[in-house]
Amino acid sequence: MSEEDEDQPPPPKRPRASPPADQVLDNVLETVLQFLDAPGDRSAASLVCRSWHRAESATREAVAVRNILAASAARTARRFPRARSLLLKGRPRFADFNLLPPGWAASAFRPWAAAIAAAAFPALTSLNLKRIPVTDADLELIARALPATFLELSLLLCDGFSSHGLASIASHCRGLRVLNVVECDMAVEDEQEVVDWVAAFPPDPTDLESLSFECYGYAVSFDALEALVVRSPRLKRLGVNQHVTLGQLRRLMTHAPRLTHLGTGAFRPADGGDEGIDFGEMVTAFANSGRGRTLVSLSGFRDLAQEYLPTIAVVCINLRTLDLSYAPVTPNQIVMFIRQCFNLETLWVLDSVRDEGLETVAMYCKKLRSLRVMPVVANEDADELVSEVGLAAISRGCRDLRSILYFCQSMTNAAVIDMSRNCPELKVFRLCIMGRHQPDHETGEPMDEGFGAIVQNCSKLTRLSTSGHLTDRAFEYIGKYGKSLRTLSVAFAGNSDRALQHILQGCSKLEKLEIRDCPFGDAGLLSGMHHFYNMRFVWMSGCNLTLQGCKEVARQLPRMVVELINGPPEDERTEDVDILYMYRSLDGPREDVPPFVKIL
Amino acid sequence: FCEICLTNNCDGSAGKIATMIALVSSDNERFEVSEEAASQSQTIRNMIEDGCADGGIPLPNVTSSVLAKVLEYCNKHAATTTPDAASTEAVIGSAGTRAVLGPARHGPVVLRAVPCRAAGRRCPEGCRLDEGQDAGADQATFKIENDFRPEDVEKIRKENAWAFEE
């Protein structure tokens, strides 16, 4: 492409007869549309006229299908034959909380793997899958279809594959640059059956830039891993699993001095103390890797030996991301290095840091944009470690906050209102008060005013998760002010269908709605009929929906796939619906439907 | 197609002495176009009116190959402006380092090329597209006839929204 301009003969001095206008146009368009990146621009270009549509389809390289069930592989390949990267998302998010039985859409990816193997996407170099079941056979198909050209595989929250699938990719895809396996639920294997996929990489120098397997449950051969890192001079991101000890980590770090992202594995010396790694050696290791100032992200700490945590202090100045979500760090420990983290933008911690730890974070991490505070014990009976005190401190100290996920046992409206005023740039507000129906613990009032203030004051809010005791009033606020909301999660809240009506009639940009265990029935559901085709999906479980209401939706919206999951067996005469999951689909309902799913 | 006035709907008036304007690309290629066609660009029209165009209008940031393409596009559409509702405005600009064109989303949109700063796409001439602010003085706006049937537009819009967009 880049040579096209230079290869053309110099234009004549006089105006010349033009080739057929359409052909010229297509060439010009394709030349220029190459540079259109933003998805919105591409959609707009595709609607201008026929030749623009052709040109845009022929030049779109980054193709995203954010609900894999919404469009078939065949349709996607027909429209975007030159796709270079494919992003596919599968299960609804509530599946992460075990609300969706396994095997719900077990073969969703199979047609895509088959399409890739049949050269339907001949330019494909990059595959990015989220919440999708992937089998070893699928990975083998892809690896064999694109051995020379496949460059990037990212699997996030996927499941079903094993070490064998990874070995297929490692051994066949010679130019592989990215292999990221993140938070995946890989198939359980017998110890003898586990393949050392790290050893499956060919012995030549690799082009690997990113290798991440922090969630991988088995040990990989360290010798093979070390040799792989040594012969991967372009490696920038390395995330090892908890079987890699601190001493081994130190050795890997010496082989990859220019890492930008490091997943540190166990962060504990091997048992038996053979490693003899001391504090100073670890500090040196970080100092050396930090010398290039390239290290910007740390994660891992999967079996943290607390006394070694302060060794990271020397690289904290450059850190932008710190993920301590597997490390129960105490307030005294976090204070030892958080003071240097003044460039930190993303911080994930456990509530073991307590309110005091959060106060320290608020004091020093002024550039913080994204914070997650997750529970060590995810249980409503657990000790209260963080509270409204921590939330208020964060809101006062971190004014640039864009995104927060905060688990706690109890909360006050005042603290939430403060946050809404102190952090007007918030785009994501997810508050999880772990007990059900918890009111403001100081006033005893529902949490309506707090959430109301969030939607009212944070005009850029696109994602909201509610919790605590909420009446219909909270949803009146959300419907009235939540005009930018695209994703809404509601659990154990509201009094009546009015709440759901407020949401569906007020939130005009709503695309994703997930509701569990709320007293919402058919009337509430039907109040959204005008809007459902604008939404990616609606999930309602544990509510008061009946078969009749769901059938009515299916009747009025024929292009909506309306799935009833975990319904009663056919012979049982009940109208109750356990889980409703509905989504738009261009190609009709799927065919592989497990017995616990009924599609209306 | 009329080779003199470079339009599709030549009314023969260009057979008379048509005022030709020379546009000079960065590599010193001269392109002669009718004044009418060139005046689609506000900047050029200003220069013509100010009398600065006599020696040819230099476009130091646009190469000949790009300019040739842009002119073809201009010429095709200069003649097809139909004031109907089913048309889209597209903008061609030669500001910045390169001429680009793009569709209108909510009215005329300017896509203007600016020099590549971020490491990212390797563009042939070191450019990337940047959404401009407003239809400034150096852009030209064209109406493109939308040859889709309404049901086709609806189908594509649905396909975009349901499957391939954010």
From TrEMBL, chain A:
SUPFAM superfamilies in the cross-refs: RNI-like
Location of the COI1 F-box domain: 22-61
InterPro entries according to UniProt: COI1_F-box, Leu-rich_rpt, Leu-rich_rpt_Cys-con_subtyp, LRR_dom_sf, Transp_inhibit
Annotated region described as Disordered, given as residue ranges: 1-22
Signal peptide range: none
Domain annotation Transport inhibitor response: ranges: 81-129
Entry-linked PANTHER family: F-BOX PROTEIN FBX14, F-BOX/TPR REPEAT PROTEIN POF3
Annotated protein name in UniProt: F-box domain-containing protein
Organism: Eragrostis curvula
TrEMBL record, chain B:
Pathway(s) per entry: Protein modification; protein ubiquitination
Domain called SKP1 component POZ: residue spans: 20-78
Domain of life of the organism encoding this protein: Eukaryota
Keywords: Ubl conjugation pathway
Limits of the SKP1 component dimerisation domain: 140-163
InterPro entries referenced in this protein's UniProt entry, alphabetically: SKP1, SKP1-like, SKP1/BTB/POZ_sf, Skp1_comp_dimer, Skp1_comp_POZ
Any single Pfam family the record assigns to this protein: Skp1_POZ
Claim: Nucleotidyltransferase is one of the keywords in the record: no
GO biological process: jasmonic acid mediated signaling pathway; protein ubiquitination; ubiquitin-dependent protein catabolic process
Family of the protein in this entry: Belongs to the SKP1 family.
Protein name listed in UniProt: SKP1 component POZ domain-containing protein
